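ARCHIVE CARD
Drawer: 12
Card no.: 0347
Subject: one protein chain, sequence and derived structure
Cross-reference: see card 0346
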Amino acid sequence: MTLTRNLSLRFKIPLFTAVLILLVGVSITASLMISGYTIFKQDLLLTSNNMGRIMAHTLIPALLRDDLWKAYEIINTPFSIESEMNALQASAVLVLNPQQQVYVSTNPSQYPMLTEPADKDLEISQLIERIDANKKQPHFYDERTGFNSLYIVTPIESDNTLLGTLIMVYPKEIFINRFSTFIRFASITTLIIIALLLPIGIYWGRRAARPLVELSKCMGDIGSTRPSDMDYHQIRYQSEDELGQLGQQFLQMVDQLKEKEYLEQQVLTAERMAAIGRFTAGIAHEINNPLGGMLNAISTLKRYGNPDPLTAKTVELLERGLVQIKNIVAALLVEASAETHPLTPQDIDDTLTLVQQEANKKQTRIGWNNQLEREIPIASTLIRQILINLLLNAIQASPVMGHVNCRVEIHRSLLSITIVNNGEQISTEQLQHLFEPFSSVKEDGVGLGLWVTYQIVEKLNGDIQVSSGEILTEFVVTLPIPEAA
Protein backbone atom coordinates (compact mmCIF):
# COMPACT_ATOMS: atom_id res chain seq x y z
CA MET A 1 0.00 0.00 0.00
CA THR A 2 2.89 2.34 0.83
CA LEU A 3 4.49 1.53 -2.52
CA THR A 4 1.43 2.55 -4.53
CA ARG A 5 0.91 5.62 -2.35
CA ASN A 6 4.36 6.93 -3.29
CA LEU A 7 4.10 5.88 -6.92
CA SER A 8 4.01 8.60 -9.57
CA LEU A 9 0.63 9.42 -11.09
CA ARG A 10 2.00 8.61 -14.54
CA PHE A 11 2.14 4.97 -13.34
CA LYS A 12 -0.52 4.99 -10.63
CA ILE A 13 -3.47 6.08 -12.81
CA PRO A 14 -2.74 3.57 -15.64
CA LEU A 15 -2.12 0.84 -13.04
CA PHE A 16 -5.38 1.50 -11.21
CA THR A 17 -7.21 1.71 -14.54
CA ALA A 18 -5.81 -1.67 -15.59
CA VAL A 19 -6.71 -3.24 -12.22
CA LEU A 20 -10.22 -1.80 -12.46
CA ILE A 21 -10.65 -3.23 -15.97
CA LEU A 22 -9.44 -6.64 -14.78
CA LEU A 23 -11.77 -6.58 -11.77
CA VAL A 24 -14.72 -5.58 -13.93
CA GLY A 25 -13.89 -8.30 -16.46
CA VAL A 26 -13.55 -10.98 -13.79
CA SER A 27 -16.73 -9.80 -12.06
CA ILE A 28 -18.70 -9.87 -15.31
CA THR A 29 -17.36 -13.33 -16.15
CA ALA A 30 -18.23 -14.64 -12.68
CA SER A 31 -21.69 -13.11 -12.95
CA LEU A 32 -22.19 -14.70 -16.36
CA MET A 33 -21.06 -18.07 -14.99
CA ILE A 34 -23.49 -17.91 -12.09
CA SER A 35 -26.29 -16.78 -14.38
CA GLY A 36 -25.40 -19.46 -16.93
CA TYR A 37 -25.37 -22.17 -14.29
CA THR A 38 -28.79 -21.09 -13.06
CA ILE A 39 -30.21 -20.81 -16.58
CA PHE A 40 -28.84 -24.18 -17.70
CA LYS A 41 -30.22 -25.87 -14.62
CA GLN A 42 -33.61 -24.24 -15.05
CA ASP A 43 -33.56 -25.16 -18.73
CA LEU A 44 -32.80 -28.80 -17.87
CA LEU A 45 -35.51 -28.87 -15.22
CA LEU A 46 -38.12 -27.26 -17.44
CA THR A 47 -37.31 -29.45 -20.44
CA SER A 48 -37.24 -32.59 -18.34
CA ASN A 49 -40.50 -31.74 -16.58
CA ASN A 50 -42.23 -31.10 -19.88
CA MET A 51 -40.82 -34.26 -21.34
CA GLY A 52 -41.88 -36.25 -18.24
CA ARG A 53 -45.43 -34.84 -18.27
CA ILE A 54 -45.85 -35.60 -21.98
CA MET A 55 -44.42 -39.08 -21.62
CA ALA A 56 -46.49 -39.83 -18.47
CA HIS A 57 -49.68 -38.68 -20.24
CA THR A 58 -48.83 -40.79 -23.28
CA LEU A 59 -48.18 -43.88 -21.13
CA ILE A 60 -51.64 -43.87 -19.49
CA PRO A 61 -53.46 -45.81 -22.28
CA ALA A 62 -50.65 -48.37 -22.52
CA LEU A 63 -50.67 -48.94 -18.77
CA LEU A 64 -54.46 -49.21 -18.63
CA ARG A 65 -54.40 -51.90 -21.36
CA ASP A 66 -51.25 -53.43 -19.88
CA ASP A 67 -49.62 -52.98 -23.30
CA LEU A 68 -45.97 -53.54 -22.40
CA TRP A 69 -44.61 -53.11 -25.93
CA LYS A 70 -46.51 -49.91 -26.46
CA ALA A 71 -45.08 -48.55 -23.22
CA TYR A 72 -41.58 -49.60 -24.25
CA GLU A 73 -42.04 -47.89 -27.62
CA ILE A 74 -43.20 -44.67 -25.94
CA ILE A 75 -40.21 -44.37 -23.59
CA ASN A 76 -37.73 -45.24 -26.39
CA THR A 77 -39.14 -42.75 -28.89
CA PRO A 78 -37.07 -39.76 -27.59
CA PHE A 79 -33.88 -41.84 -27.95
CA SER A 80 -34.58 -42.46 -31.61
CA ILE A 81 -35.10 -38.78 -32.46
CA GLU A 82 -31.90 -37.01 -33.48
CA SER A 83 -32.46 -33.37 -32.78
CA GLU A 84 -31.17 -30.49 -30.74
CA MET A 85 -32.97 -31.96 -27.76
CA ASN A 86 -30.50 -34.84 -27.74
CA ALA A 87 -28.11 -32.50 -25.92
CA LEU A 88 -30.39 -33.01 -22.91
CA GLN A 89 -31.16 -36.66 -23.59
CA ALA A 90 -31.80 -38.90 -20.56
CA SER A 91 -29.42 -41.80 -20.05
CA ALA A 92 -32.22 -44.08 -18.84
CA VAL A 93 -36.03 -44.05 -18.44
CA LEU A 94 -37.87 -46.36 -16.06
CA VAL A 95 -41.56 -46.96 -15.50
CA LEU A 96 -42.39 -48.42 -12.09
CA ASN A 97 -45.67 -50.03 -11.21
CA PRO A 98 -47.53 -49.04 -8.01
CA GLN A 99 -45.54 -51.69 -6.15
CA GLN A 100 -42.32 -49.87 -7.11
CA GLN A 101 -41.21 -52.70 -9.42
CA VAL A 102 -39.82 -52.16 -12.89
CA TYR A 103 -42.62 -52.28 -15.40
CA VAL A 104 -40.56 -51.28 -18.41
CA SER A 105 -37.24 -49.50 -19.01
CA THR A 106 -35.07 -48.32 -21.85
CA ASN A 107 -32.30 -50.57 -20.58
CA PRO A 108 -33.93 -54.00 -19.87
CA SER A 109 -30.60 -55.68 -19.23
CA GLN A 110 -29.87 -53.38 -16.33
CA TYR A 111 -33.45 -53.04 -15.10
CA PRO A 112 -35.40 -56.29 -15.99
CA MET A 113 -39.19 -56.37 -15.81
CA LEU A 114 -40.92 -57.00 -12.50
CA THR A 115 -37.68 -56.68 -10.57
CA GLU A 116 -36.81 -54.42 -7.74
CA PRO A 117 -34.61 -51.64 -9.19
CA ALA A 118 -33.00 -51.33 -5.76
CA ASP A 119 -31.38 -54.71 -6.36
CA LYS A 120 -29.48 -53.34 -9.35
CA ASP A 121 -28.81 -49.72 -8.33
CA LEU A 122 -28.27 -48.51 -4.76
CA GLU A 123 -28.96 -44.88 -5.76
CA ILE A 124 -32.31 -45.88 -7.30
CA SER A 125 -33.08 -47.60 -4.01
CA GLN A 126 -32.43 -44.35 -2.15
CA LEU A 127 -34.54 -42.49 -4.70
CA ILE A 128 -37.52 -44.86 -4.28
CA GLU A 129 -37.40 -44.33 -0.55
CA ARG A 130 -37.96 -40.61 -1.10
CA ILE A 131 -40.74 -40.94 -3.63
CA ASP A 132 -44.04 -39.89 -2.17
CA ALA A 133 -46.70 -41.96 -3.85
CA ASN A 134 -49.39 -39.46 -2.99
CA LYS A 135 -47.46 -36.53 -4.49
CA LYS A 136 -49.26 -35.25 -7.53
CA GLN A 137 -46.37 -33.09 -8.87
CA PRO A 138 -43.08 -34.13 -10.46
CA HIS A 139 -39.95 -34.16 -8.31
CA PHE A 140 -36.39 -33.11 -9.21
CA TYR A 141 -33.46 -34.67 -7.41
CA ASP A 142 -29.89 -33.43 -7.94
CA GLU A 143 -26.53 -33.26 -6.14
CA ARG A 144 -28.03 -31.10 -3.43
CA THR A 145 -30.20 -34.05 -2.38
CA GLY A 146 -27.18 -36.36 -2.25
CA PHE A 147 -27.39 -38.05 -5.71
CA ASN A 148 -24.67 -38.42 -8.31
CA SER A 149 -27.13 -38.25 -11.21
CA LEU A 150 -30.08 -36.02 -11.91
CA TYR A 151 -33.55 -37.57 -11.57
CA ILE A 152 -36.98 -36.44 -12.73
CA VAL A 153 -39.76 -38.41 -11.02
CA THR A 154 -43.25 -37.98 -12.53
CA PRO A 155 -46.34 -39.82 -11.22
CA ILE A 156 -48.57 -41.48 -13.86
CA GLU A 157 -52.20 -41.02 -12.83
CA SER A 158 -55.61 -41.61 -14.31
CA ASP A 159 -58.77 -40.48 -12.52
CA ASN A 160 -56.74 -39.87 -9.35
CA THR A 161 -55.50 -43.46 -9.47
CA LEU A 162 -51.75 -44.03 -9.43
CA LEU A 163 -50.84 -46.25 -12.38
CA GLY A 164 -47.10 -46.01 -11.93
CA THR A 165 -44.09 -43.75 -11.67
CA LEU A 166 -41.93 -42.42 -14.50
CA ILE A 167 -38.23 -41.95 -13.63
CA MET A 168 -35.92 -40.13 -16.04
CA VAL A 169 -32.19 -40.38 -15.29
CA TYR A 170 -29.80 -37.72 -16.54
CA PRO A 171 -26.02 -38.05 -16.15
CA LYS A 172 -24.45 -35.08 -14.44
CA GLU A 173 -21.88 -34.85 -17.25
CA ILE A 174 -24.53 -33.61 -19.71
CA PHE A 175 -25.07 -30.48 -17.64
CA ILE A 176 -21.39 -30.07 -16.79
CA ASN A 177 -20.32 -30.33 -20.44
CA ARG A 178 -22.77 -27.67 -21.54
CA PHE A 179 -21.77 -25.43 -18.64
CA SER A 180 -18.05 -25.95 -19.36
CA THR A 181 -18.59 -24.93 -22.98
CA PHE A 182 -20.31 -21.78 -21.81
CA ILE A 183 -17.49 -21.05 -19.33
CA ARG A 184 -14.87 -21.36 -22.07
CA PHE A 185 -16.82 -19.07 -24.36
CA ALA A 186 -17.39 -16.47 -21.62
CA SER A 187 -13.75 -16.60 -20.51
CA ILE A 188 -12.38 -16.20 -24.04
CA THR A 189 -14.79 -13.33 -24.72
CA THR A 190 -13.78 -11.63 -21.47
CA LEU A 191 -10.07 -12.04 -22.22
CA ILE A 192 -10.54 -10.52 -25.68
CA ILE A 193 -12.44 -7.58 -24.24
CA ILE A 194 -9.81 -7.08 -21.52
CA ALA A 195 -7.02 -7.29 -24.11
CA LEU A 196 -8.75 -4.55 -26.10
CA LEU A 197 -9.62 -2.35 -23.14
CA LEU A 198 -6.29 -2.57 -21.29
CA PRO A 199 -4.22 -0.61 -23.86
CA ILE A 200 -6.99 1.96 -24.20
CA GLY A 201 -7.30 2.29 -20.42
CA ILE A 202 -3.54 2.60 -19.97
CA TYR A 203 -3.34 5.19 -22.78
CA TRP A 204 -6.13 7.34 -21.34
CA GLY A 205 -4.74 6.89 -17.84
CA ARG A 206 -1.33 8.19 -18.91
CA ARG A 207 -2.93 10.97 -20.88
CA ALA A 208 -5.00 12.02 -17.87
CA ALA A 209 -1.92 11.91 -15.62
CA ARG A 210 0.39 13.83 -17.97
CA PRO A 211 -0.88 17.37 -17.12
CA LEU A 212 -0.72 16.58 -13.39
CA VAL A 213 2.81 15.20 -13.69
CA GLU A 214 3.98 18.24 -15.67
CA LEU A 215 2.29 20.60 -13.25
CA SER A 216 3.88 18.82 -10.29
CA LYS A 217 7.34 19.04 -11.88
CA CYS A 218 6.89 22.74 -12.62
CA MET A 219 5.70 23.44 -9.08
CA GLY A 220 8.75 21.59 -7.78
CA ASP A 221 10.95 24.05 -9.68
CA ILE A 222 9.51 26.96 -7.72
CA GLY A 223 11.99 27.93 -5.06
CA SER A 224 14.99 26.46 -6.85
CA THR A 225 14.50 28.43 -10.08
CA ARG A 226 14.19 32.18 -10.44
CA PRO A 227 10.71 33.25 -11.58
CA SER A 228 12.25 35.23 -14.45
CA ASP A 229 13.77 32.00 -15.81
CA MET A 230 10.42 30.17 -15.71
CA ASP A 231 8.53 29.63 -18.96
CA TYR A 232 5.66 27.23 -18.34
CA HIS A 233 3.10 28.44 -20.86
CA GLN A 234 3.80 25.36 -23.00
CA ILE A 235 2.08 23.18 -20.34
CA ARG A 236 -1.22 25.02 -20.72
CA TYR A 237 -4.00 22.44 -20.47
CA GLN A 238 -6.71 23.40 -22.95
CA SER A 239 -9.76 22.60 -20.88
CA GLU A 240 -12.31 24.32 -18.69
CA ASP A 241 -12.44 21.50 -16.13
CA GLU A 242 -10.82 21.58 -12.68
CA LEU A 243 -7.46 20.47 -14.07
CA GLY A 244 -7.49 23.25 -16.67
CA GLN A 245 -8.43 25.79 -14.01
CA LEU A 246 -5.58 24.54 -11.82
CA GLY A 247 -3.14 25.03 -14.71
CA GLN A 248 -4.44 28.54 -15.32
CA GLN A 249 -4.04 29.42 -11.65
CA PHE A 250 -0.49 28.06 -11.67
CA LEU A 251 0.44 30.17 -14.71
CA GLN A 252 -1.06 33.25 -13.08
CA MET A 253 0.99 32.50 -9.96
CA VAL A 254 4.18 32.26 -12.05
CA ASP A 255 3.38 35.59 -13.75
CA GLN A 256 2.78 37.19 -10.35
CA LEU A 257 6.07 35.78 -9.07
CA LYS A 258 7.86 37.25 -12.08
CA GLU A 259 6.23 40.62 -11.49
CA LYS A 260 7.11 40.43 -7.78
CA GLU A 261 10.72 39.58 -8.61
CA TYR A 262 10.90 42.48 -11.06
CA LEU A 263 9.45 44.91 -8.52
CA GLU A 264 11.84 43.65 -5.85
CA GLN A 265 14.77 44.18 -8.21
CA GLN A 266 13.51 47.68 -8.99
CA VAL A 267 13.18 48.49 -5.30
CA LEU A 268 16.63 47.06 -4.52
CA THR A 269 18.13 49.00 -7.41
CA ALA A 270 16.44 52.21 -6.32
CA GLU A 271 17.54 51.72 -2.71
CA ARG A 272 21.09 50.88 -3.78
CA MET A 273 21.24 53.90 -6.07
CA ALA A 274 19.81 56.17 -3.38
CA ALA A 275 22.35 54.89 -0.86
CA ILE A 276 25.18 55.35 -3.33
CA GLY A 277 23.86 58.83 -4.15
CA ARG A 278 23.80 59.87 -0.51
CA PHE A 279 27.24 58.40 0.03
CA THR A 280 28.82 60.03 -3.02
CA ALA A 281 27.10 63.37 -2.33
CA GLY A 282 28.47 63.37 1.20
CA ILE A 283 31.96 62.57 -0.03
CA ALA A 284 31.69 65.21 -2.77
CA HIS A 285 30.71 67.93 -0.30
CA GLU A 286 33.56 66.97 1.99
CA ILE A 287 36.02 67.04 -0.92
CA ASN A 288 34.77 70.37 -2.30
CA ASN A 289 35.96 72.50 0.63
CA PRO A 290 39.67 71.49 0.66
CA LEU A 291 39.61 71.22 -3.12
CA GLY A 292 38.49 74.82 -3.49
CA GLY A 293 41.17 75.95 -1.04
CA MET A 294 43.90 74.12 -2.95
CA LEU A 295 42.79 75.59 -6.28
CA ASN A 296 42.72 79.10 -4.79
CA ALA A 297 46.23 78.57 -3.38
CA ILE A 298 47.54 77.44 -6.76
CA SER A 299 45.89 80.42 -8.48
CA THR A 300 47.52 82.81 -5.94
CA LEU A 301 50.90 81.12 -6.44
CA LYS A 302 50.68 81.45 -10.22
CA ARG A 303 49.61 85.10 -10.00
CA TYR A 304 51.94 86.45 -7.32
CA GLY A 305 54.69 83.90 -7.03
CA ASN A 306 57.88 83.65 -9.03
CA PRO A 307 58.51 79.89 -9.33
CA ASP A 308 61.29 78.40 -11.37
CA PRO A 309 60.33 76.53 -14.59
CA LEU A 310 60.31 73.10 -12.93
CA THR A 311 58.09 74.36 -10.10
CA ALA A 312 55.79 76.14 -12.56
CA LYS A 313 55.40 72.95 -14.57
CA THR A 314 54.65 70.99 -11.42
CA VAL A 315 52.07 73.58 -10.33
CA GLU A 316 50.34 73.35 -13.71
CA LEU A 317 50.25 69.56 -13.41
CA LEU A 318 48.73 69.84 -9.95
CA GLU A 319 46.15 72.34 -11.18
CA ARG A 320 45.06 70.09 -14.06
CA GLY A 321 44.65 67.16 -11.66
CA LEU A 322 42.68 69.22 -9.18
CA VAL A 323 40.43 70.59 -11.95
CA GLN A 324 39.71 67.04 -13.09
CA ILE A 325 38.82 66.11 -9.51
CA LYS A 326 36.57 69.19 -9.36
CA ASN A 327 34.77 68.11 -12.54
CA ILE A 328 34.20 64.61 -11.13
CA VAL A 329 32.86 66.04 -7.88
CA ALA A 330 30.61 68.41 -9.82
CA ALA A 331 29.18 65.43 -11.72
CA LEU A 332 28.35 63.74 -8.43
CA LEU A 333 26.41 66.80 -7.21
CA VAL A 334 23.46 66.98 -9.56
CA GLU A 335 21.05 69.76 -8.62
CA ALA A 336 17.62 69.74 -10.25
CA SER A 337 16.93 73.21 -8.93
CA ALA A 338 19.61 74.84 -11.03
CA GLU A 339 18.41 78.07 -12.60
CA THR A 340 17.74 77.57 -16.28
CA HIS A 341 15.19 78.53 -18.94
CA PRO A 342 12.27 76.29 -20.00
CA LEU A 343 12.95 73.60 -22.59
CA THR A 344 12.45 74.64 -26.22
CA PRO A 345 12.62 72.67 -29.50
CA GLN A 346 15.91 74.48 -30.26
CA ASP A 347 17.49 73.14 -27.05
CA ILE A 348 16.81 69.61 -28.28
CA ASP A 349 18.29 70.29 -31.72
CA ASP A 350 21.38 71.92 -30.18
CA THR A 351 22.34 68.61 -28.55
CA LEU A 352 22.60 67.04 -32.00
CA THR A 353 25.20 69.64 -32.93
CA LEU A 354 27.13 68.97 -29.73
CA VAL A 355 27.39 65.19 -30.30
CA GLN A 356 27.74 65.22 -34.09
CA GLN A 357 31.53 65.51 -33.98
CA GLU A 358 31.78 62.40 -31.78
CA ALA A 359 29.45 60.55 -34.16
CA ASN A 360 31.56 61.53 -37.16
CA LYS A 361 34.66 59.96 -35.59
CA LYS A 362 32.96 56.52 -35.70
CA GLN A 363 30.99 57.24 -38.88
CA THR A 364 27.79 56.71 -36.89
CA ARG A 365 24.50 57.73 -38.50
CA ILE A 366 22.12 59.52 -36.15
CA GLY A 367 18.41 59.32 -36.89
CA TRP A 368 16.82 62.46 -35.42
CA ASN A 369 13.11 62.82 -34.70
CA ASN A 370 12.33 65.91 -32.61
CA GLN A 371 8.54 66.19 -32.25
CA LEU A 372 8.66 68.92 -29.60
CA GLU A 373 6.75 71.89 -31.06
CA ARG A 374 6.41 74.22 -28.09
CA GLU A 375 8.16 75.41 -24.98
CA ILE A 376 7.58 73.28 -21.89
CA PRO A 377 8.34 74.13 -18.23
CA ILE A 378 11.24 71.70 -17.67
CA ALA A 379 14.83 72.77 -16.93
CA SER A 380 16.47 72.79 -20.35
CA THR A 381 20.00 72.39 -18.97
CA LEU A 382 19.12 69.12 -17.28
CA ILE A 383 17.28 67.74 -20.33
CA ARG A 384 20.19 68.62 -22.54
CA GLN A 385 22.54 66.88 -20.12
CA ILE A 386 20.33 63.76 -20.23
CA LEU A 387 20.31 63.81 -24.05
CA ILE A 388 24.05 64.38 -24.36
CA ASN A 389 24.92 61.62 -21.88
CA LEU A 390 22.60 59.05 -23.50
CA LEU A 391 23.63 59.99 -27.06
CA LEU A 392 27.35 59.80 -26.23
CA ASN A 393 26.76 56.46 -24.50
CA ALA A 394 24.87 55.14 -27.57
CA ILE A 395 27.58 56.36 -29.97
CA GLN A 396 30.31 54.74 -27.87
CA ALA A 397 28.35 51.46 -27.71
CA SER A 398 27.63 51.38 -31.47
CA PRO A 399 30.03 49.66 -33.87
CA VAL A 400 31.90 51.58 -36.55
CA MET A 401 29.41 52.79 -39.21
CA GLY A 402 26.59 51.93 -36.81
CA HIS A 403 23.39 53.88 -36.28
CA VAL A 404 21.70 55.68 -33.40
CA ASN A 405 18.07 56.83 -33.41
CA CYS A 406 16.72 59.56 -31.15
CA ARG A 407 13.04 60.44 -30.72
CA VAL A 408 11.68 63.19 -28.46
CA GLU A 409 7.91 63.56 -28.08
CA ILE A 410 5.13 64.51 -25.71
CA HIS A 411 2.65 61.81 -24.82
CA ARG A 412 -0.14 62.25 -22.22
CA SER A 413 1.55 65.06 -20.26
CA LEU A 414 4.86 63.18 -20.32
CA LEU A 415 8.08 64.08 -22.08
CA SER A 416 9.43 60.93 -23.69
CA ILE A 417 13.03 60.52 -24.85
CA THR A 418 13.89 57.29 -26.71
CA ILE A 419 17.44 56.51 -27.87
CA VAL A 420 18.23 53.28 -29.74
CA ASN A 421 21.58 51.91 -30.91
CA ASN A 422 22.71 48.72 -32.65
CA GLY A 423 25.62 47.99 -30.31
CA GLU A 424 26.38 44.78 -28.45
CA GLN A 425 23.76 43.32 -26.16
CA ILE A 426 24.04 44.34 -22.50
CA SER A 427 24.11 41.30 -20.25
CA THR A 428 21.69 40.79 -17.36
CA GLU A 429 24.51 41.22 -14.86
CA GLN A 430 25.57 44.49 -16.46
CA LEU A 431 22.00 45.79 -16.50
CA GLN A 432 21.78 45.38 -12.72
CA HIS A 433 24.71 47.80 -12.18
CA LEU A 434 24.32 49.97 -15.30
CA PHE A 435 23.44 53.20 -13.50
CA GLU A 436 25.98 52.90 -10.70
CA PRO A 437 28.93 55.34 -10.74
CA PHE A 438 32.15 54.13 -12.32
CA SER A 439 30.46 50.95 -13.63
CA SER A 440 31.67 51.87 -17.15
CA VAL A 441 34.17 54.25 -18.71
CA LYS A 442 32.57 54.49 -22.15
CA GLU A 443 30.44 57.58 -21.65
CA ASP A 444 32.64 60.32 -20.26
CA GLY A 445 36.01 58.77 -19.46
CA VAL A 446 35.18 58.33 -15.76
CA GLY A 447 32.02 56.20 -15.88
CA LEU A 448 29.58 58.84 -14.57
CA GLY A 449 27.42 59.59 -17.63
CA LEU A 450 24.62 57.11 -16.94
CA TRP A 451 24.93 57.71 -13.19
CA VAL A 452 24.38 61.45 -13.69
CA THR A 453 21.50 60.73 -16.08
CA TYR A 454 19.84 58.48 -13.50
CA GLN A 455 20.25 61.11 -10.77
CA ILE A 456 18.70 63.82 -12.94
CA VAL A 457 15.76 61.58 -13.92
CA GLU A 458 15.16 60.71 -10.26
CA LYS A 459 15.25 64.38 -9.20
CA LEU A 460 12.76 65.23 -11.95
CA ASN A 461 10.42 62.42 -10.69
CA GLY A 462 10.79 60.57 -13.96
CA ASP A 463 11.61 57.02 -15.00
CA ILE A 464 14.31 55.44 -17.15
CA GLN A 465 14.04 51.96 -18.66
CA VAL A 466 16.58 49.89 -20.58
CA SER A 467 16.00 46.91 -22.85
CA SER A 468 18.81 45.18 -24.68
CA GLY A 469 18.58 42.46 -27.30
CA GLU A 470 20.85 40.84 -29.83
CA ILE A 471 20.07 43.53 -32.41
CA LEU A 472 19.10 46.76 -30.61
CA THR A 473 19.55 48.41 -27.21
CA GLU A 474 16.94 50.97 -26.18
CA PHE A 475 16.91 53.64 -23.45
CA VAL A 476 13.52 55.24 -22.70
CA VAL A 477 13.23 58.26 -20.38
CA THR A 478 9.81 59.56 -19.36
CA LEU A 479 9.50 62.80 -17.40
CA PRO A 480 6.30 64.42 -16.08
CA ILE A 481 5.67 67.91 -17.46
CA PRO A 482 4.84 70.24 -14.58
CA GLU A 483 1.96 72.63 -15.00
CA ALA A 484 3.00 76.14 -16.03
CA ALA A 485 2.94 78.63 -13.18
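Annotation on reverse: The radius of gyration is 55 Å. The chain has three domains: 2-179, 242-329, 338-480.
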